[in-house]
## 1
Amino acid sequence: MLEIGAITKTYQGTPAVRDASFSVARGELVCLLGPSGCGKSTLLRIISGLTACDSGKISIEGVDMTTTQANRRPTAMVFQSHALWSHMTVAQNVGFGLRVRGLPKAEIAAKTAAVLDLVGLAAFAKRLPAELSGGQAQRVALARCLVVEPKVLLMDEPFSALDAHLRKGLREELKALQGRLDLTTIFVTHDQEEAMELADRIVVMQGGRVEQVGPPGALYQNPSTLGVAQFIGAMNTCTTNLRHGAVDWYGVTLRMHLPDGEVALLCRPEDLHPDAKGTAARVTRVIDLGPVTKVTLITGTGDLLTWTCPRDQAPDLGRVLTLLPRRLHAFRSGALMGLMEAPLPAQAQGATA
Amino acid sequence: MPDLGTTSGGIAPRHTQRTGLGLQALAGLALVALPVGLLVTLILWPTVRMVTATFLIDGTLSSDRYFAFFNDAYTMANLRYTLEMGLVSAVTALAISFGIALYLRFSAGRIATMIHGLSLFPLFVPSIIISYALVRFLGPNGLFQLMLEQVGFTHYRTPYLTPVGPFLAFVWENIPLPVLVLSAGLSQVSDHAVEAARDLGAKAPRILWEILLPQMRRSLLIAFALIFMGIIGAFTVPYMLGPPAPEMMSVFMQRTLGNLHDPEAAQVQAVVLMVISSIVGGFYIATMVKSSEAAR
């Protein structure tokens, strides 16, 4: 459906997007996820045609759109600031794209009413944008795009200015609507929870590059770079030296069949478990998150560890626990070297790499 | 007992606040007293006296002077010429300024900075200098004519002492103010508002007509009112560059007073011009008030 091939964009010598490539299937919702300044919004603007790329190719349904003007592309974009025109009513805002296309008045009115009904704003047609709440304004912006039936819907952090509760509600509405209309969508966000909840696949960007593309679960379970591992979900990071197949993990020696050298060992908080052979750490903070409890501990080496455990296993403050990782992601120079399932202390056998 | 503490604690600041507000209000009144006093003494009072005087002939109320004004063909030609000059010059200056403001809004770099500087330059040039410069440039045997003759064009007719002369000067003189007003107005239109229209398929003319102009309506009205009022009351430019007849009202007024020694007729001319200015001024104030209400 949409092919992004080796897109590069530089602003006054500073690369904003570097060699970005990925594809989006029809009806798929893909999130561009990354920290501020990683180039995700620039890439979205390049797809929309509002910003020209220096090199690379964009094609929609096999048609090269790289040099096509924004007003001739079969895309529509929802902006972070909703960008509604303050002098037009909701209906006029929504009908603008249809007026541009020269549709008859009756058809514009019918389509506008239908799409406003779709986003639940049928009663707000005659209101001005200033008379809408943030969530309503963003739904009008979405309706304004949906009414022109774009082949690709582009959304640039549309919910980031809204409060958390409203954001969650709109996210669910959007997902339902996108599924119902089978709408190919690219959604930019820096909020990993939002991306995990919405996306069929996530494109993780860092420093202008596409770091990894995959379904949310796969990215969480198998991050391919240190950047992705640290950006998606929480991680306990231990940077240490690997020598002769053994590595020191917070004072516990673990076996690891990897080449010698510096290595970053990352472990999810939920992948820690109490084990008598594990590293000793004292509980310094216990946060009840409802279904789970987040426990902060300090190890004998002075490092902080985060452990997420079931609520009924929550330890008391000050208690000393011994913990071992169930899974360890090993990275060297930012790249994944191996994933260790149930790594064992040096005196035991059976570690896998 | 804690309630008592809360109550007394609540009363004390309110009392202090009321006293503070009273002092603040008095200080505010004292600050505006001088300018308001000057306005009343030097402008409002003489204006009221002058308007009253135009309706008094030998101590009795009469509208004869206004009857004479509106029935004199030459006077009416001068009034029409003044209003037409104001309208055409203001609309032309506004159109040029809007183009410059649009360019400055959506462009960056050295050329934009240079154009910005050039567009504001007339703000610092007195009317008399502009008039002299135009006489020397566009007048008979001026630089423009000499340049045309150098390339073989010998049929040049100077705009000096024709309505085109003051028109050119008014347009040039009145570009900076609307550029500033319209630039401020355009800065309120977000890039995303324009991009959203482009993204939905709109081309530049439609974006200008349906997105930018409606959002700029207030700024345009304010700029128009300011230029128009300035032009219809201007003296130097029409005096230096304008035709002998018809005359703009300011020149006509000066001649009625200085050459024809008819102060009563000059006062009537002044009152008529003042009423027209007041209508446009009232329009300007209403637009400003709406803008501030919208901003709130």
## 2
Amino acid sequence: MLANFQDQFLSLTFGGLSLGFIYVLIALGYTMVYGVLRMINFANSEVFMYGTFATVVIIRDLFGFTQQSEPATGFRLFYILLICLAGSMFLSGVLSIFLELVAYRRLRNRGSNKLAPLISAIGMSIVLAEFMRILTDSRYVGSPRVMEKSSIATIFGANLRLDNVIVIVCGLVLYLVLQQFVKKTRLGKAIRAVSMNEDSAKLMGVNLNFVVSGTFLVGGLMTGAAGFFYTLKYENTSFSIGFELGIAAFTAAILGGIGNIKGAFYGGISLGLVETYASFFLGTQWKAVTVFLILVVVLYFRPNGVFGEAITQTRA
Amino acid sequence: MSESVLRLENVTMQFGGLVALNDVSFEIKKQEILGLIGPNGAGKTTVFNVITGVYQVTKGDIKFLGKSLKGQKRYKITYGGIARTFQNIRLWGEMTALENVITATDTHKKSGLLSGLFGLPISRKEEKRDKARAQEILDFIGIGEYADRLAKNLPYGVQRRLEIARALGTNPKLLLLDEPAAGFNPAEKVELAKTIRKIRDAGYTVLLIEHDMSLVMGVSDRVVVIDFGQKIADDLPAKVQNDKRVVEAYLGVPDDAS
Amino acid sequence: MFNLRDFGASIWERSDRKMRVLIALSAIAVAAMLPFLGGTFLNTPVADYGSVLVFPVAIFAIMALGLNIVIGKSGLLDLGYVAFFAIGAYTMGLLGTKTSLNTWEILPIGIAMAMFAGLILGVPALRLRGDYLAIITLGFGEIVRITALNLNAIGGANGIIGIPTPPTIFGLEYTFDNHRLYFWTFLIIILLTIWMIRRLSVRRGGRAWESIRQDEDAAELMGVPTFKYKIWAFVLGASVGGAAGVLYASKTLFISPDNFTLQVSILILACVIFGGMGNIWGVILGAVILGYLPDRIRFLSDARLLVFGIVLVLMMNLRPDGILPRKKREKALPAKDSK
């Protein structure tokens, strides 16, 4: 088995990395909101799930692909993928803002007990998942193939699949863009200010509701992108996918230190890799158990995650 | 003569690159009221936090009745005899004033969950005794009539006093007061000064952080001044008031002509 | 606004001891009569009223009471409470089919197993901050389910069949459809649980939990050994969940990992929050409503859970403290103070 592992190590690593970037993007959704509101946005997993469906719908209904269609190539492929990415991000972003307005804003403004927003989030999560379940008749929904999944290159005998490359490259770009956004833009700076100290940010004239909506939007956009990548990579989705991936991504966010953007990055990547390697040895049925055991062990030794909390790294 | 209750020995506290306390040493003697003052952000509350075990000191040591507090659990430190109040009031709002104090007296109880479950006599006896004691403390602080009111519904001034009563409930040898007069009007401050002296006269030792100079200078036996995490004075109130470095720390050094 | 909780409490406080015994006894009598209300509009479209009363209603009530110790009393968010229920049920399933022990002998073993699991989970998890506790407990619940699913030694995906009913006592025979007898048995367990919680919540233990729930840091700095009390809350909550599991297995006679999904944890949590965290009567009311309602509204068939989710969101936004919130009232000031 070990020899086998060595043979497959590189292709496992590529697969793990692309899964890792999907985790990174969902984890960013959790982390952004947590950094600002100190609250677990439980329904972020469903925001992701809707993102995966957006891509399916665009491929299937907008571009009319069927299971028999020829995969697209060249510029047409690039164009289609771009539309899918934009569509998923848009839907998830809007859904995320909507979520905050409906489920959290009222509770936040009246400063109720700590658990109420969480239960409200769980409720929203049930509503969104159930709505999709009824819509899809509890079935898995396949996505027609838009691109050839043959390997584009071979490195040391490992096949480099185009979809994995796209996920990894785009994931990295999105992550870097987000980092610059938080550092450089007005909204990004306001988000950082609120996450450091809500009261003084308010005193300095930051419009809190606006910043919170902005945070949910940005988190939703990242999570939606993850939805697109997921559909591209696995070519099917279902109403329950949010729960499965959401838990893992949240674990990733905590591993790195929730509220910390860099933490989401490293947490997501390492979780994707470890999960892929572990599945190889133990079989996929123990995947979730491995993930949680890692989480427990990490938190036991580093209660604030590997990189600690807080959205900024520039704290004294 | 008068023995030392608490001694800070070269305490340094660092948060990453920020040095909050730098080589601070002072001691508090039995039945003394020691005022701890300094400009905003000088590190006063940090002193409280290292004493009560909220932070572990980076360097140096803190000795309470001759024993090091290093590595002790926070509730054990309270059990050992140090109690504090909070600058931003942190009462248990949905308990009555009396319950707030009784919960603090529970520190020294022998009976726990199981003796409560089976209604053992020891539990019943202790309960009765502590209820009476808690009421005594409330009366002593002068807020006895509010015993049955929920803490969150009490007037601001009463809440501040209840913080003190709750800390006394743990039966401390050393009482740490963190800005007990914040938000008080002059009349209330005079009342508070009386209460603090009364507490000392009842045998307690008090470490007081306070912004209000007249209160600190009026009530303290000795005053320690810190600025930028360093001790810059440690003397009788009258002498500290005229100390050049203290005046500079508060008014700013007139050398910013660059 | 009219407050049902305060209304009830003021009647209780005005009554003397004799009156209180009378109130308590009549309440128990009313509860014990519930199974006789079958055949009325209370019947649910598919399931028999009597059986709904046993499961989910009574089982939910026991579990909600147990979870209330953890979340309502000490404020610890446990999203994996189903794990303790599963451990109790599997203890019953395995010992019941493989040994000659009967339900009453297995009950304490099941409780002990659940408490042990609570301790194992609690020691690392309760050192962490509240939000992390939620995710760790959620993970624990999933680990228990996945382990049951993948271990063929304990039935794997097929679960365990042929679990024995409790043995006959006082000539009363527990048959599969003797719902009344099961209901009364569960009622006794509910009453015992209520008694335990009430005894624990007065005096030192109750105050310690209360202070931890409201401000844990302040509690610790006032000398409350917070870690110890959190472990206690966790372990006691687990014990109740384990008991519910043993009884459940001994009633349905068949268990499989599908009975112990995250949905169960969330449903029980919803009972606690919906009814009114920290208030025993609210929690029971929550369990009754949420246990009964989905079966009663089965005509909504597919949209059942959807409606449930909407109700949760609305409820949290309109009445975040539940239907019967915990005591917020103050005692009236003594007469001498009022002029």
